[in-house]
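call fold(seq) -> tokens
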Amino acid sequence: MAIARSSALLLALALTATFSPSSGKAQSQFVCTEFIGYSQMGNTDWGGWGPYAAQVMVGGGPDTVQLRWENGAAAFRWADPGFSGWNISPTSPCTRSSSAPDRVILDITHNEYLTAARTNGDPVGFMETRIRGFIAQARAHRQSARSIVLQPVVGGPNHATTCQIAGLPSSGSGPHDPNDPGVVRASYNHPYIHAAIERIVAGDVTMGYDSMVRTCADYNDWEGHLARAASQPIGAMIGSFYLNGGGQAGGSNAGATAPPPAQPDASNTPPSSPSLSQALPAPPADASPSDLWLVVLGQVQTFSPDMEPLSVATSGQWYRILRIEDGWMLGVWEFDPPDSLVWIELGPNVAVTPS
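ret:
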């Protein structure tokens, strides 16, 4: 089912616009968005997710997204004013304003494990300094940018740092140092980078998509490049986040840690019924390719059929859709029994897709 979902997601994200009126408008606010980063984003030979994110953001319109990247381009390299990456031609340049993008999304990584020994005991502060240098050079080289978005390297599932490297090859940067942690470097570094970004965001500098793999099997090597089967769905989730207004000042940010609302907005409450669970058919045991699913892109509150707050759904979870009504989805988490119905409000932190 995972393969079917991956291939369907890009085609189906257009459905999201039907249920999220701000989606097309959010992307059209920018003439040219430039992702700036490294191989995990741009190198398709190593599972780069960037082209898939751009495809979702652009849709069938003119090219408004371009990729600027170099292998090994950690944040400290972009903080160097003379770094060669600032002068290369972007991949798939924007139709307009390619040399003067009005939004830049800085994809943040480091090329070594952020251990205490390598960071003077302060990995978050270590990365904060380097990210601030990256931002300074982004402002100097992209004076046209009115929005700077910070996105961390694609981390482990639910911020896990336990993705083991046993059996994983190197992308070509050399063998894994046995003195380093025996886990995938991207998953190890992600929480520190995310915490550093949280210290920095303010004004026109915002938190981007809190990108994470679905399972550790999505990693293809010990550095943290993605498996080819994972790059498309992860890229599509990233693209959908920005398409729907994520990462904008005052908008939705998957990395935000604010608690969910205690109850839904009274002006947009879905209909409820005491016998709702008996009135709706149970999901079929064997999912049909025509079934609609909701995939969670960022934290969203779930509610019971009687609108009691339940758990917070997190990025990467899938829900089989039974009903869409008045901007809400009624469905069942894929691993729950068929009578465990929940309401989820449709918006930029979710996408609707066939199975």
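Residues 1-24, 251-290 have pLDDT under 50 and may be disordered.
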